[in-house]
Structures are given as structure tokens and as C-alpha cells.
Fold this sequence. Notes:
Elements: H1 4-7, E1 31-34, E2 39-42, E3 45-46, H2 47-53, H3 56-65, H4 71-83, H5 89-96, H6 104-118, H7 129-155, H8 168-177, H9 188-201, H10 208-218, H11 223-235, H12 242-255, H13 260-268, H14 289-305, H15 310-323, H16 326-330, H17 337-347, H18 355-376
Antiparallel strand pairs: 1-2, 2-3
Residues 19, 238-240, 242, 267, 275-282, 331, 333, 336-338 line the site of acetyl coenzyme *A (ACO).
Amino acid sequence: AVDIAKLRGQSGLITIDPGFKNTGSTKSAITFLDGEKGILRYRGYNIEDLAENSNFLEVSYLLINGELPTTDQYEDFSDRITKHTLVHEDIKKILDGFPSVAHPMGVLSSLICSLTAFYPNSLDPNNTDEEIQLSMVRLLAKMPTFAAWAYKNKMGHPVNYPDNSLDYCGNFMKMMFSLPSEKYEIDPVISKALDKLLILHADHEQNCSTSTVRMVGSSQASIYASISAGINALWGPLHGGANQSVIEMLEAIKADGGDSKKYLEKAKDKNDPFRLMGFGHRVYKNFDPRAKIIKKAADEVLEKLGINDPILDIAKELESAALNDQYFVDRKLYPNVDFYSGIIYRALGIPTDMFTVMFALGRLPGWIAQWKEMRENNEPIGRPRQVYVGETERDFVSIDKR
Ligand code: ACO
């Protein structure tokens, strides 16, 4: 075994591992996953059990604190979050500055980062554990408010304030969908499906956005700045943005006559940059356990809501064609969580460019737990090396001689 402490500060052999496919960046006790067997556990609990029996706030507590809460602990945690759902009125002025075409992910990351200005104390790396706990509660409490406001900004609607008589998902849905002129009723089927989706997205060890949160946090930046960076990392189409890309791809296939086989061939063509969005995963090489749960939830929601969506038929055709195609079988490319999450979000009436925001809402407790672990482990600043491949030393040439 290598004694890492002894290696600290030493230079020597540099390994190169593009995309960090085989490089562990940390030791972590939060999430276990086995990509070959399709196992995902938070703090030792199987994702299937948590999705079936728990709720998002309980899972958030588990991820952050390491244990499932007792009734008293749960009530205290939930009450604290409820108390902090309101945001400073001046944050609305920041929101008003965004044009309605602004992507809600950009709005969300900016509003989260703005918390550094409203709570400047968070910039102090010597914050006490209580102060850190308060920042975590604020994040969990205010993120749904910001997410719903980002949507309202896009729609040109007045924002809704939090309704603290509702649970986490109910409050979010009301802020998203209710209009001053209408009475808004929360559909328990939709609320439950949403809660399940948030649980499934809550953590996924050292993925791109989580590694970003830990990397930014390792410089002792504020937790708000670190989470804001994580939101930006999640935004990309190869990460959280894939759920939006899936629906856009399915819509494009429909507009082009609905021939899913044609797109399957395109995805296999190495001269064509097109990829089948929602297929493949860096770690899961047999199946994505979250995709299994979500697929069932998608079927339930669509049946309950009586939705018959032609996009869904294309998704099913594409899935079965890919599962029987040698290219996809050889490369172990299966539908991932994002292939189905977009379908549920669409059925719930959530617009496409809010999908990744929904993912961010779910991933938040994971980011928080990972940031907290990084801090508690007193991890050194993240600073990868490189293998230099540029010019060797050369003489400066003045501009008139170039
Ligand atoms: N469609 C077609 N071919 C694919 C796809 C796809 N969706 N995904 C991978 N491949 C092929 C690659 O072209 C490559 O083929 P080759 O060996 O012949 O060159 C092989 O499969 C391996 O692909 P890599 O890109 O090396 O795999 P990697 O682990 O780096 O990438 C990723 C994983 C980014 C998820 C990739 O599968 C992809 O781009 N999928 C589509 C985007 C997507 O759904 N992202 C969501 C990920 S889940 C999440 O973030 C929650």
C-alpha cells in the first residue's frame, strides 16, 4: 500500500488518464456503486429500497449525516428546511435582470452563487459546523424557490412565494405551476413520482458535477460557490443535460417521420457525430438500476394520467432496437436514467429546458454531502498534473520579424 501522506509534495512519475476513467480522486463513505452488477447504494441502503420506502428529505438527511433520521431528527430537519424557503427580496431584482430566453440552469447557478453575497459569512473557510449546517439547510430550502422562479422568469409569469404548509415536492410544484387566477391542486401521483425521481438522482459518487463541487470546495471556496459550479457542470449534454437532449432527439425523430432505425444507424456511423442520447454510461456497463425504477414509474404515471404520447412510442422502439443491435450490445450501451426521466418530466407538464434543473434539485443533497465529506477529510486542494506536449524552449522573435 502507498502511504499518501509520504507522497505529499513529492514530484515524480505522472500518469495520464483522460476523463479520469480509472483514477480515484478520493475515499468516500457516501455512495457505493457496482457498474457491472448494476448496484447503487446510498450509505449502504439499496436505491430500490429507498425509492420504494423513503422520501427525498429523509434520503437527503441520510446522505448528509450518514444515518437515517429518527422521527424527532426528521421533524427537526424538515422544520428547519421549511423555515428557510423564503429568499431575500433583492434576489428577485437579480432574477428580473435575466431575459426570458435565459436558460433556467444559468439562472439557477447564478442565483445560488448570489447567496455568497447575501450570506457573506459563508466565504470564511473557518465557519463552525453549525454555520455550515445552516448553509446546507438554506441550500435545500431555497433551491426549489430558485428553480421555480427560473421557470416563472422564462414564462414571463409573476413568481409565487413558498407555501410552507406543503411538503417539499408539493411546495415546489405549487411555486412552479400555480397562476394567480387559478386554484392549484396538487396531484398526489405526480408529487410521489417527482419525489421518487429526486431520490434516484440524489447522489452518484464522483461524477462530473460532484467532482466539480469537491474540486471547487477544495480551494476553500464557499459552499454556495461550490454548488453553483456543480450546477454548471451538470448543465452539459453529456451529463445532466442529457435528459433534455433525449426529448429533443425524440422530437426530431418524430418530425423526421418517426423512423427510429434510421437514427440508430446514424448513432453507429463513426463519421456522424450523432449519439443516441440517454444511452450509455461511464460506469454502468450492464444496466442502470435507476433506469429500471424510473421506467416502471414512467409507465405508472403515464397510465394514471391517461397520457398517450407518440414520443413515448418512438422511445420504446428505439430502446428495443438498440437492445437487439450488435453495436450497442458489444459496447454495453443501455438506456440510462435520463432516457426515462425526460419522459416523466414531460408527462408532468415540466418544460424541456427545466429537465436539468429537476436533476439539479435531486442531486443537491449529494453535492452537499460530498462537499461536507471533502471538508471533514481535510482534503488537499485538487490540482491534477499534465503531460506537456508543446514546443521546447525557443528564442523570442520581435513582432517586425515574424
Ligand atoms: N450512441 C452511440 N454510440 C455511443 C454512445 C451513444 N449514446 N455512447 C457511447 N457510444 C460508443 C462510443 O462511440 C464508443 O464507441 P467506439 O468504442 O467504437 O469508439 C463507445 O461507445 C464507448 O463510448 P465512450 O464515449 O468512450 O464512453 P464514455 O464512458 O466515455 O461515455 C457517455 C459515457 C458520455 C455517457 C456516453 O455513453 C454518451 O455520450 N452517451 C450519450 C449521452 C448521455 O446519455 N449522457 C447521460 C449520462 S448519465 C448521467 O449523466 C446521469
